[in-house]
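re: that chain from earlier
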Amino acid sequence: MQTSKSIVLGFFLLLFISSCISNKRIVYMQDLPASAKVAESGPLAEYQVEEYYLQNNDVVDISIRTTSPELNQIFTAQAAGTDWRMMGGGGGMMEGGDIFFLNGFTIDDQGMIEIPLIGELQFVGLTTKQAKELVEEQVRKYVAEDDYFVRVRLGGVRYAALGEFARPGKFTILQNRVTIFEAIANAGDLTPLAKREEINLVRQYPEGSKTYKINLTNADLLSSEFYFLRPNDMLYAEPLKARELGTGFTFIETFSLAISTLSAVLLVMSAIN
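^ sequence. v structure.
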């Protein structure tokens, strides 16, 4: 009996020691030996950026300026009455609705957008550069070659984060390009229980949707086609088995669980003997 208790106590003591994290591993700017390296350089990972072609339901920001005040008033009619302050304007990352959704142009189910005075244009399947050239072609019907300025860009990158995120939901990042790590950070980072080796990425294509398994622990991700998110991507983080087992992932939780388990084991052993 005494031997069994000693074995159980020794096991849990070993568990607690291995669960402890030294302050040396979490304190910033320590006085370390001169031999300690400040930084280690890794290999350069070249970006693999795919050309993005506009799809249905994308929101496009189109700015048209000419030398004619009357034409400018017509082309900016889409944005009339929009208040940046109401939408939290000026921030780089936003949730849900944003300024571009109100004064931008949403590509409809037929792949079309409608611009005041110009009318409907087919945008699906074009890059933003090709869409800009298409708009410029229409604007030249009203003004001379050098009397206008046209800008066409995506109205931010919209995506969804589900599962083991600290703050799951739908988000819009008002940037032209967004890395997968920026998207995760914007959703509050992954919880300790997330499967970082198997993040599900659902990507939209004109012909349908496709699912990929992304390994965030692999450095080769930096040079892959999945390093940058695309509009309307969805990230889903599955939980580890620890959630099913109900084990703790901090020292206090593990300690409390171990004490309860040890007490139960000793109680059963005492009852048997």
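The helical segments are 2-19, 69-75, 99-103, 128-139, 180-186, 241-245, 251-272.
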